[in-house]
Amino acid sequence: MARAVPPARKALTTALAWAVGLLLFFPILWTVLTSFKPEPVAVASPPVFLDFDWTLRNYQDVQRQRDYFDYFQNSVILSLGSTILALLIAIPAAWSMAFVPGRRTKDLLMWMLSTKMMPAVGVLVPIYLILKWLDDMITRRTGIDVGLDSHVALLVILTLINLPIVIWMLYTYFREIPGEILEAARMDGATLRDEILWILTPMALPGIASTFLLNVILAWNEAFWTINLTVTDAAPLSKFITGFSSPQGLFYAKLSAASTLAIAPILVLGWFSQRQLVRGLTFGAVK
Amino acid sequence: MGRITLEGVAKRFGEAEVIPPLDLDIPDGSFCVFVGPSGCGKSTLLRLIAGLEDTSAGRILIDGQDATRVPPAKRGLAMVFQSYALYPHMSVRANIAFPLRMAGMAREERDRRVEEAARVLNLTPYLDRRPGQLSGGQRQRVAIGRAIVREPKAFLFDEPLSNLDAALRVGMRIEITELHERLRTTMIYVTHDQVEAMTMADRIVVLNAGKIEQVGSPLELYREPRNRFVAGFIGSPRMNFIEGAEAARHGAHAIGIRPEHVTPHPSSGDWKGVVGVAEHLGSDTFLHVHDTGLAETITVRAEGEIGLNPGDTVYLTPQPDRIHRFAANGDRL
Q1: Within a domain: residue A271?
Q2: Would you call A184 an interface residue with chain B, using a CB distance cutoff of 8 Å?
Q3: Nearest CB to A178: which of B83, B89, B102?
Q4: Å from B102 to nearest chain A CA?
Q5: pLDDT at residue number B16
Q6: CB contact under 8 A, B73 and A198
Q7: CDD domains from the xrefs (chain B) (predicted)?
Q8: Cβ separation of A190 and B86 shorter than 8 Å?
Q9: Which residues fall within 8 angstroms of residue B254, CB to CB, at 6 or more apart?
Q10: Is residue B84 part of a domain?
């Protein structure tokens, strides 16, 4: 399989790849570095790269002002919860689109994708009003929190905004599974539930796993809805970060510390699952 | 019990009529082969019986009960697919046990039946392997094992041997025939290979463009094909067809004579021709004779060590009682 590549070209492409990689990584590196700087150094001009008094003070300040773990817990609940909900809806949906496509299946898939092209801010006000109405109608009367700043509302919203991508990904994986195997299961007496539970899901497990991972990451990083619709009760780490930006005073170092704390868990998750992620994302492209 | 009756069963995909309404009765315990060229609708017909496709019209009866709207899982039929369609994430044991598990059978009984099926099919050493670790023939046997454990009313085979190499195919053909001898369960077997049809079937259904051309035992089809299509499809090498004056002499639009019913002779006979190709198989020699003025090529089966070579003149004499006569529309006269 190895092709002869001239050493000069190899060196050049390697250098280029490193350059691009560093370019992409630089903002994250800078954020992490800044989080260890004293506030005045963080805004110093010209910028200081490594030569400063390293400090953990920002982390202490951040934790003193807001409890990181409350937000962390909300991030876990929202990202895992919305992903599991999305999978529960998407697996049967993708099954029907992949194995019993109708005349409009293709249109339906395109339509679902098109919802991702709409600017989210366009529906912020209606959704805000709906949640406010739910607050008035249900939360106030029953005590069950389903409106603004509630887990339920955020779970539903995050599930729905990522659902098109989840269905699309699963659809592509399912299409790789030979229909005859599902027919064999049907001949063997499997009901639709058995077929999805015992045959389709285990066979598509690598695809489902990478869909799961990607969606957890997407939901974890989601900021628009979580920032606008939560205050404290359901606020995840994205909201935690914004809490440290202020119109006056020095806040860059603390903001960076908060950001570092917010992205650290997902960075670790991504690091350990990168093989699964790459495999899932290139599934079907390279067989 | 496994009697399958089709009454006016038809299948349309949109505008295209794949199978025009047809009637067919498959008696309990028979080995029925659907044979025909590719695209003739034989697999579709099998899938209609299985319930994997919905009928556009007509009724399917299994043991006299209307099963037309019964889902495949509830028809009590087992199917072996061309691709084997094994469950790749399960061991051989779990594959064979799957239909029993779906039927809610108790674990001990399940294990006993799986062991028994594995023993019959020589799969015992492979029970804990995955399908991916098996050869084509072994996979085929697992697929058959999965079908037999549940003791179905009938087996449906969809070109089960076409993914195997030639030697294995002959072996599996015999194994399936022996299986039928032992179980005496109805089997419906789809193939495009007329040799498989002739050797395995006790009833052959010849299909062409979704239409049943003829139903009968292998020898009935061989001796008395109802029309030119069946005559040409059954038998190997193919029957010779002669039109024109020679056919008119027999009072027909066309006559047919099988290669094995023509006697070659170096110096005398009815038809004179030149040997084009001589295929020496050892036991037989197939002569492809040209320039007879009757048809482009007349194929003749001669004895194995006949001393005729390409370019030699040869005289051919058909056995008069073996000449098949056909009308202009292809029907037998």
Answers
A1: yes
A2: yes
A3: B83
A4: 6
A5: 87
A6: no
A7: ABC_MalK_N
A8: no
A9: B228, B241, B242, B243, B247, B325, B326
A10: yes
pLDDT reading at A287 higher than 50: no
Q: Indicate whether B205 belongs to any domain.
A: yes
Neighbours of B100 (CB within 10 A): 23
pLDDT classification of A1: cutoffs 50, 70, 90: low
- pTM for this model (two decimals): 0.79
- Kindly identify which residue of chain B lies nearest to residue A194, measuring between CA atoms: B102
- The tokens describing B136, both together, are 């084509």
The boundaries of the domain holding residue A94 are 68-281
What CATH number does the domain containing B244 carry? Answer: 2.40.50.140
Q: What is the per-residue pLDDT for A281?
A: 65
Shortest Cα distance from A194 to chain B (angstroms)? 8
Q: Do A187 and B103 touch (CB under 8 A)?
A: no
- How many Å lie between the alpha carbon of B11 and the closest alpha carbon of chain A? 18
| Closest partner CB to B146 (pick from A188, A202, A203) | A188
A192 inside 8 A of chain B by CB: no
- Looking at CA atoms only, how far is residue A99 from chain B in angstroms? 12
Identify which of A202, A205, A195, A198 has the alpha carbon closest to the alpha carbon of residue A100. A195
Is A285 a residue whose pLDDT tops 60? no
Entry field: residues in chain B: 333
pLDDT in tens, A188-232: 999 989 999 999 988 888 889 889 998 999 999 888 998 888 888
Q: ipTM value, please give it.
A: 0.85
**How many of the other CB atoms lie within 10 Å of CB of B37?**
13
The strand pairing partners of B65, in sequence order, are B62
Percent of chain A with pLDDT over 90: 41
DSSP state of A196: I
Query: What's the CATH number where A247 sits?
Result: 1.10.3720.10
Q: How far is B111 from chain A (nearest CA, A)?
A: 17
Which residue from A91, A103, A238 is spatially nearest to A158, judged by alpha carbons? A238
Starting at the earlier edge strand, list the strands of the sheet with B57-62.
B16-26, B4-13, B57-62, B65-66
Q: Which pLDDT belongs to residue B176? A: 92
Enumerate the residues of chain B whose CB falls inside 8 A of the CB of residue A178.
83, 85
Tell me the Ramachandran region of residue A202: left when phi exceeds 0, alpha when psi lies from -120 to 50, beta otherwise. Answer: alpha
- Choose among B74, B85, B150: nearest Cβ to A184: B85
Q: What percent of chain A has pLDDT over 70?
A: 96
Residues from chain A contacting residue B99 (CB–CB below 8 Å): 188-189
Which phi and psi (to 5°) does residue B276 adopt? -90, -60
Q: Is the pLDDT of residue A286 over 50?
A: no
Q: How far apart (Å, rounded) are the C-alpha atoms in residues B2 and B9?
A: 18
Residues B162 and B86 placed together within one structural domain of the fold: yes
* CA–CA dist B215, B201 (Å, integer): 11
Q: Which chain B residue's Cα is nearest to A179? A: B85
Residue A128 or residue A116, greater confidence: A128
Which residues of chain B are modeled with pLDDT < 50?
none
pLDDT over threshold 70, residue A283: no
The CATH number of the domain where B193 resides is what? 3.40.50.300
pLDDT digits (tens, 9 = 90+) for A122-149: 889 999 999 999 988 888 888 888 888 8
The count of structural domains within chain A is 1
Q: Which domain holds residue B288?
A: 239-326
How many contacts (CB atoms, under 8 Å) link A and B?
61
DSSP structure class, residue A249: S
Residue A91 lies in a domain: yes
